[in-house]
Predict the structure.
Amino acid sequence: MLAFTIRRLGQSAFVLAVMSLLVFAGVYAIGNPVELLVNPQADEVERVRAAAALGLDKPIVEQYGTFLANAFSGDLGRSFVYNVPAIRLILDKLPATLELAAAAMVLAIAIGIPLGLLAGLKPKSWVGRSIMAGSIVGFSLPTFWVGLVLIMVFSVQLGWLPPNGRGETVLLFGIPVSFLTADGLAHLAMPAFNLALFKLSLLVRLTRAGTREALLQDYVKFARAKGLGPGRVIGVHVLKNILIPIVTVIGLELGSVIAFAIVTESIFAWPGSGKLLIDSINQLDRPVIVAYLMVTVTIFIVINFVVDVLYSLLDPRVRLGGAAAH
């Protein structure tokens, strides 16, 4: 376990270093923030002074070296627009994004796995066919269009749910959350479902395929031959064995949900880090963009590590050394 941890930490450090270089070079090569931050009527002297104040007058290699040195102490730069640490802006908005992503994944898991299991057990029934048809629809519909339809139906026409915002929040371990209040849950319902729809469809299809494959295995046939009930066969011998690829996908998709909740947050005006990223891109607030991307990369790395650990817990045959090799 110690060797595995050290090896993964080394891999993680390498990935972070490479990503920091790619992100920094890509972001800092686009546009000139000075043009947006200074008065359009400012003269060249004022523009040069502003560029020097932001550190933009130095070569990009030197800027990256300064960024890398500061990053080791947790300083990812100061926002050009708000003049506060970029990481503080990200962390202030991140709880809202994490709450939305977690709610979306809970919905996807709670609905997708049972439906996929049912479709796998009864593939030729009208129920199984309907579930698979619904999953295709879930794959095909654009997220922004689904969000707009949800607002039109449940907010405008029926008036059941609020169309935007986060609603009432309460503090949980010092972090504001909305899922503990009725108003917050009402605000969370539509964006969470909108973000969960694609992942739900993915889990339906993955679970169905795994169930169909598991039912053909000898250990399932042997369990039935011993006279075990359907519930035990499905719960112990089928579901447990198909959970390994499902856990992998859930872990990776959780990272993508956090990273790409931008569209949903924009449609429902959800005050998360994705909306902050859009605003920062429009304002060419480079430190905030870089900080957001680095935080997202770190989240992906942590999730991958957790998935490797869960591998070994779900199936003792899976060795951590083998998981790390992949």
Q: What stands out?
A: Residues 86-121 form the longest helix (36 residues). The radius of gyration is 24 Å.
